[in-house]
Amino acid sequence: MNPAFLLAQQRESIVAMSPRTRPHLPQLKLNDPAVRAMNDFLSDPPLTVVEDIALEAVLDGMFRLGVRAMLVVRDRTVVGLITAEDARGSQLPRQHRGARGDGSFPRVADVMTASFDVPAIDWQTLQESRISDLIEIFEGMRVGHLVVLQSESANLSTVRGLIHRDRLERQLGSFSWARLGMG
């Protein structure tokens, strides 16, 4: 059964074609090209969610699909990023749900990181970088995700990919961020 159909209730929709499988994650080394740590949306299109969907539905969808982040879109334009941590951290206790002031449930728009606040790296810069550079960026900015932007023109960029800090840590294996004084 199509997960997008299951989640599409009362105008709410999470765009998803099929559950994500956990691909084998190759081990990475500090000197490897940084692009090896990126989820490339040219080969694996991103999952997206609209900003007015209830957080509970987003968390359910993320769990079912095995993802930790989704791009938030409005009219085919990326307006933000929502992570499982954002959604979980903002969940109200059951007895207080529906108490946003207007009686409605918390929505993606209430907790997403707006696109202008999402940490990003340029595709060209990423191609010239190493895994050790990504570690410095993650530690310096204290963030869990980096969006990779590819410039189409002077005024237009597209989201080319996403880099997850947790995934990078798993791919580094026994590497210790603390060993570099970054833990």
Explained architecture:
This protein is of the alpha+beta class and 183 residues long. The chain has a single domain (3-17, 32-180), classed as CBS-domain. Helices cover 27% and strands 22% of the residues. The chain contains seven helices and nine strands. The chain has helices at 3-7, 55-65, 84-89, 108-111, 123-127, 131-141, 165-172; strands spanning 14-15, 39-40, 48-50, 69-74, 77-83, 113-114, 120-122, 145-151, 157-164. A five-stranded mixed β-sheet has the order 1-3-4-5-6. Strands 2-9-8-7 form a four-stranded mixed β-sheet. The radius of gyration is 17 Å and the shape is globular. The termini are far apart.
User: What portion of the residues fall into strands of 2 or more residues?
Assistant: 15-25%
Order of helices and strands: HEEEHEEHHEEHHEEH
> How many domains is the backbone divided into?
1
- What Rg do the Cα atoms give? 17 Å
What class, by secondary structure content? Answer: alpha+beta
Q: Can you tell me the CATH class?
A: Alpha Beta
| Fraction of residues in helix | 25-40%
What is the assigned CATH homologous superfamily? CBS-domain
CATH hierarchy: architecture: Roll
Number of strands: 9
Main β-sheet, in a few words?
5 strands, mixed
Name the overall outline: globular
